[in-house]
Design goal:
With 154 residues, this protein is an all-alpha fold. The protein is built from 5 helices and 2 strands; from the N terminus they run ααααββα. The N and C termini lie far apart (99 Å).
């Protein structure tokens, strides 16, 4: 007699690959995905669970330079040099502590968003968000250098 073995289905839940893992879950903190898995997925949008050291260094250096910009701006404003950014000028009128905290929060929120979306391509796939994130410390460095030059030369 032929015996037919019934294979018991071990999958009890919905396919987890049907939707990407949200970056705001516990799984994203203990995951192991650093890159895409298949070569054909390299141009698709995907989230990662772990971020590279270079991504973290870019994020932290941009935050530090942003804070340096905030302190230099406060010093320049005390020397009667105006703030050109109307949004930051509004917050500057609230007080120095509020200005620094709001600037830090806005920068940190924007950088965190860029970090989460770092594998996304913009403008029909021509520019990756990580490229923008990589360029920001350079822009802040130019700004902080200019502000330091203005402070030194009065």
């Amino acid at each position: 007699m032929n015996e037919i073995k019934l294979v018991q289905e071990r999958r009890s839940r919905k396919d987890r690959r049907a939707t990407p893992t949200s970056p705001f879950t516990f799984r994203s903190l203990v995951g192991s995905r650093r890159l895409y898995r298949r070569k054909e997925d390299s141009r698709k949008f995907f989230f990662v669970d772990l971020y590279s050291g270079s991504s973290v260094i870019l994020l932290v250096s941009t935050l530090v330079l942003s804070l340096a910009d905030a302190f230099f701006t406060l010093r320049l404003v005390s020397d009667n040099i105006g703030e050109l950014n109307p949004v930051m000028n509004f917050f500057l009128r609230l007080g120095p502590f509020q200005f620094i905290m709001i600037k830090w929060f806005m920068t940190a929120f924007g950088l965190t968003t860029l970090l989460i979306l770092k594998n996304y391509y913009l403008w029909q796939g021509r520019i990756r968000v990580f490229s923008i994130m990589s360029f920001l410390p350079f822009l802040y460095l130019v700004l902080v250098t200019y502000e330091a030059f203005m402070l030194i030369n009065g």
